[in-house]
UniProtKB/TrEMBL annotation:
It comes from Agromyces protaetiae. Keywords: Glycosyltransferase, Transferase. The lineage of its organism: Bacteria, Bacillati, Actinomycetota, Actinomycetes, Micrococcales. One of its GO terms (molecular function) is hexosyltransferase activity. This is Glycosyltransferase. CDD domains: Glyco_transf_WecG_TagA. It comes from the Bacteria.
Length: 250
């Protein structure tokens, strides 16, 4: 069982502490960005393979207030940075225009709706059964299609593990974890109201929308990690350092 100190110190050098830092990351470059929420920490506590996948990412972001609090307890002044909000900004600002984008995960319907938004920029899609995926084959297909930005819309632990394996298999490009961002962008999944986000209750909106799938994740898998890792972080904090004092985008 990994301690909160090991979790925090292992990830801290990789943190993109603001939306501005994430937005400034050169798209198409050979780097992998991993968003981190409480579920990721719960998996990383117990699984060596999953922890290796997180450590292999070039950058991580705090996607959720518990992870924000964990990093703040180690002295980093940061904001919540989510893959879904990055995707919304990237599409709205045409940041993906001129890139060859791939989508890994999501349903065929969501992929088709996303294609209508991105148009010719979306050149590669894989929506098959994730248990049958071959990282080597996907890496080869994405490379053959000249994909330079690959969006991974797959829940943990599968999305994080396949993202690591894609890089290990030789894919060279930007690998960006976006979670349910594509579903929200096309309207297949509703984002939490802003007032819930402000109070750190976005999880409650997700649980209310899908209780059968999420109750075990939140209350059986994640609650012990919240107690062991996050609660101490709420009461033990080192002096804050501004985000600019960390290396950030390299």
């Amino acid at each position: 069982m990994r301690s909160r100190h090991e979790l925090a110190e292992g990830l801290l050098p990789k943190v993109l502490a603001s939306n501005a830092q994430l937005d400034s990351l050169p798209l198409g470059g050979p780097h992998r960005v991993q968003t981190v929420n409480l579920h990721h920490l719960a998996l990383a506590e117990r699984s060596d393979d999953f922890w290796s996948a997180m450590l292999s990412a070039d950058y991580v972001t705090a996607d959720g207030w518990p992870v924000v609090q964990l990093f703040r307890s180690r002295g980093l002044d940061l904001e919540r940075v989510t893959g879904s909000e990055w995707l919304s900004r990237a599409v709205g600002s045409n940041a993906l225009a001129g890139h060859r984008v791939g989508l890994l995960g999501g349903s065929h319907d969501v992929g088709a709706r996303f294609k209508r938004i991105l148009g010719e920029s979306l050149v590669f899609r894989e929506h098959g059964n994730r248990d049958e995926w071959s990282a080597t084959q996907i890496a080869e297909d994405a490379t053959r299609m000249d994909v330079d930005v690959l969006l991974v819309a797959v829940t943990p632990p599968y999305g994080d593990l396949i993202a690591m394996k894609l890089v290990d298999a030789g894919y060279v490009g930007t690998v960006m974890s976006v979670g349910g961002g594509v579903d929200m962008l096309v309207g297949a999944q509703r984002a939490a109201p802003e007032w819930l986000k402000r109070f750190g209750l976005e999880w409650f909106a997700r649980l209310s929308a899908n209780p059968r799938r999420l109750w075990r994740r939140y209350f059986v898998e994640c609650m012990p990690t919240f107690v062991r890792v996050i609660v101490p972080a709420l009461v033990v904090r080192t002096p804050s350092a501004p985000a600019s004092s960390y290396e950030g985008v390299r």
